[in-house]
Amino acid sequence: MAVGRFQVMATLQAARAYVLGKPIHEAKSFGLNRAIFYAAAKKGFKAMKGAKPPEKVVIGKTELPEDKIKKIQESFKVENIGDEIAYAVTLDGKTYYIIGNEIQTEEDFAKEIERRFNGKFDKAWEEALMIVSSYDKGVLLSQRYFYEVVYKPRRDELAKKWTALAEGEDLENNG
């Protein structure tokens, strides 16, 4: 199974959030959230006008019970990573990002992103952290600069390289 631009975006965005100080579960949630957001934007998705808590909440394919939804609705907030905003909620004491009614959890990240690496995600994660850490904090805090300077120039190269890694080739000897 190939590693595509979606997985590259999610991994680099998660690394960005982690380098900027978010805990790993929150960084992975943010990474998947941003990959979904950009994929939807590319297909003509229009951003929500005005933030509002979700009416129902889904984790994976499971809709949560009413009492849990109420707590999540009460925790709904706008989070910033630099000049980029994302909607977030608190679930079981942890912050997660949300699009519409779907919360992006670290389990979702594992299922949507990590599984594409066939057990070798840790090597790609280390490379992503190295890449992101090499940039000035100002670049990481800017949505536009992050996209234009960090992600866009290497998205296809990383997709190819990480696909080779997932297929069993040695990361250091490829590219």
Give the arrangement of secondary structure elements.
Blueprint: H1 5-19, H2 24-42, E1 58-59, E2 62-63, H3 66-75, E3 77-81, E4 84-91, E5 94-99, E6 102-104, H4 106-112, H5 121-133, H6 137-141, H7 143-151, H8 155-166
Helix pairs in contact: 1-2, 1-5, 1-8, 2-4
Task: Write a compact overview of the structure shown.
By secondary structure, the chain is an alpha+beta fold.
Explain this structure to me?
The structure is a single chain. A hairpin with a 2-residue loop joins strand 5 and strand 6. Helix 1 packs across helix 8 and helix 2 crosses helix 4. The model has no long low-confidence stretch (mean pLDDT 89). The strands form two sheets. The protein has a four-stranded antiparallel sheet. Strands 1-2 form a two-stranded antiparallel ribbon. The longest helix has 19 residues. The protein is an alpha+beta fold and 175 residues long. The protein has one domain. The protein contains eight helices and six strands. It is globular and about 50 Å long.
Notable traits:
globular; 6 strands; alpha+beta; four-stranded antiparallel sheet; 175 residues; 15% strand; 8 helices
Gross geometry: globular
Tally of separate domains: 1
Strand order of the largest sheet: 3-4-5-6
Order of helices and strands: HHEEHEEEEHHHHH
